[in-house]
UniProtKB/TrEMBL annotation, chain A:
Domain of life assignment: Bacteria
Any single Pfam family the record assigns to this protein: MerR_2
Organism: Zooshikella harenae
Name this polypeptide is given: Chaperone modulator CbpM
TrEMBL record, chain B:
PROSITE patterns for the chain: DNAJ_1, DNAJ_2
UniProt source species: Zooshikella harenae
Assigned keywords, A-Z: Chaperone
SMART domains on file: DnaJ
UniProt superkingdom: Bacteria
Gene3D superfamilies: DnaJ domain, Single helix bin, Urease metallochaperone UreE, N-terminal domain
Protein's recorded name: DnaJ domain-containing protein
J domain: residues covered: 5-69
Length: 116, 319
């Protein structure tokens, strides 16, 4: 049985805004993959660097790009997807998410209309 | 411990072929992948399916499992005990990059030492491998009021942890996190070093929290801006008036100018979510009137209709 661990209190958190802050080296380290794979994933449009496209050393990514890459790598590993299929799946997932949000909002709207 | 019927988990017959097993696994992995699935309990189902496939795809392990299924003692409550002196023949080793967490049942069958628990530091391993811990992601749902004021959130989740021998176990970690005021939908909060532990002296991963705002009955948030639909009567819009409307920070007075139109937006500066700069609240007018009018009111409307008969609201419709 695991010993009792007291809760850790964190009162100083970092809110990550939308500014690009992760370079290619850090992205690779956090994803545990080689640069070549990230470069290939960029070439398939899985994420877009937020500055000069031609020089990978200068690429910068935002926090949601990092999440997207990590999610992409999990999907690639668990479902044995190739990069083209992966890019396609992610695009469809994005679309599904947007549609779900729209549906939620519409349902909410309909509900308030009915109440009135 | 609970007996796991791997065949049932994959939805296949006991005599399924390797191809059938593979096919069933692939289908369920797509269905329950935690990054894709919206099913309840998807993560556990995905792990279960992965564990079942790990055993059944390998003819050696499958044979052992089948044997156990026949021989294993079952308690009255359905609990399962492997036969005494049971030892797995397959020296199963989980691959290093795998992230799965197998059940007690699996470990009882295929052994603790050589199986699901990963050795990170056996015999000089620690000196050669130095790896950053994985980043961990969670979503946290907040009410708009909480996003406005900031709040304290207690988070509990399972984290892998290396013990003295370098074995990876999982424990529950509790964090009390102060969410600052003014976070917005989809924004991320990073807690440095609170992700998975580093290996061989590597740094810990970070914990990323993605903010998910619950739909609010009145307000609708876009970034830091807050939108509110405000019903007004035709006479309030026509004559202008001072009305009271809610904001996240409390009630405020809004001056409606005479001749205001339905759909017109009024900006209440810096009444949105706080920050630098803070967001605004937008009040959108919506004309509302009683469903039934008194005879006197009807007479007044008739008077109004005569007075403003020159106005054609459907001019743009070409009629």
């Amino acid at each position: 049985m695991s010993p009792h661990h007291p809760p850790i209190t964190i009162s100083d958190v970092e809110v990550i805004d939308a500014s690009p802050r992760f370079d290619l080296i850090e992205i690779c380290e956090r994803c545990g993959v080689d640069q070549a794979l990230i470069i290939a994933m960029v070439s398939y449009g899985i994420v877009e660097p937020h500055n000069d496209y031609k020089v990978p050393e200068q690429w910068l990514f935002i926090a949601s790009d990092l999440l997207r890459l990590q999610k992409a790598l999990r999907l690639k590993r668990d479902l044995s997807l190739n990069l083209s299929g992966l890019a396609f799946a992610l695009d469809l997932l994005d679309e599904v998410n947007t549609l779900r949000q729209d549906i939620n909002q519409l349902q909410h709207f309909i509900k308030t209309m009915q109440q009135e | 411990m609970e007996f796991k019927d791997y065949y049932k988990i994959l939805g296949i017959k006991d005599n399924a072929t390797t191809d059938e097993i593979k096919k069933a696994y692939r289908k369920l992995a797509r269905k329950y992948h935690p990054d894709v699935s919206k099913e309840d309990n998807a993560e556990n189902r995905f792990k279960e399916v992965g564990e079942a496939y790990e055993v059944l795809k390998d003819p050696g392990k499958r044979a052992e499992y089948d044997q156990l299924k026949q021989l294993g003692a079952r308690g009255r409550d359905g609990s399962f005990q492997p036969p005494p002196n049971w030892q797995s023949a397959s020296h199963f080793h989980e691959t290093f990059n795998g992230d799965s967490q197998f059940s007690d049942f699996f470990e009882a069958i295929f052994g603790q030492q050589g199986s699901a628990r990963r050795h990170y530091s056996s015999q000089g391993f620690q000196q050669t491998i130095k790896m950053r811990g994985d980043d961990v992601h969670h979503r946290i749902g907040l009410f708009l009021e909480e996003a406005y004021k900031g709040c304290l959130r207690t988070l509990q989740f399972q984290v892998p942890e290396a013990d003295n021998q370098g074995l990876i176990t999982h424990r529950t970690k509790t964090l009390n996190v102060k969410i600052p005021a003014g976070v917005t939908q989809g924004q991320h909060i990073r807690l440095k070093g609170q992700g998975a532990p580093g290996i061989g002296g590597g740094p810990n991963g970070d914990l990323f929290l993605e903010i998910e705002l619950a739909p609010h009955p009145l307000f609708h948030a876009e970034g830091k801006d807050i939108f509110l639909s405000v019903p007004v009567t035709p006479w309030e819009a026509a004559l202008g008036s001072a009305i009271t409307i809610p904001t996240l920070g409390g009630k405020v007075s809004l001056i409606i100018p005479a001749g205001a139109q339905s759909g017109q937006r009024f900006r209440l500066k810096e009444r949105g979510l706080p920050g630098t700069p803070p967001g605004n609240q937008y009040a959108i007018l919506q004309l509302a009137q009683p469903a039934h009018h008194s005879d006197k009111a009807k007479a007044l409307y008739q008077q109004l209709a005569q007075e403003e008969s020159h106005f054609n609201p459907r001019q743009k419709l070409g009629v």
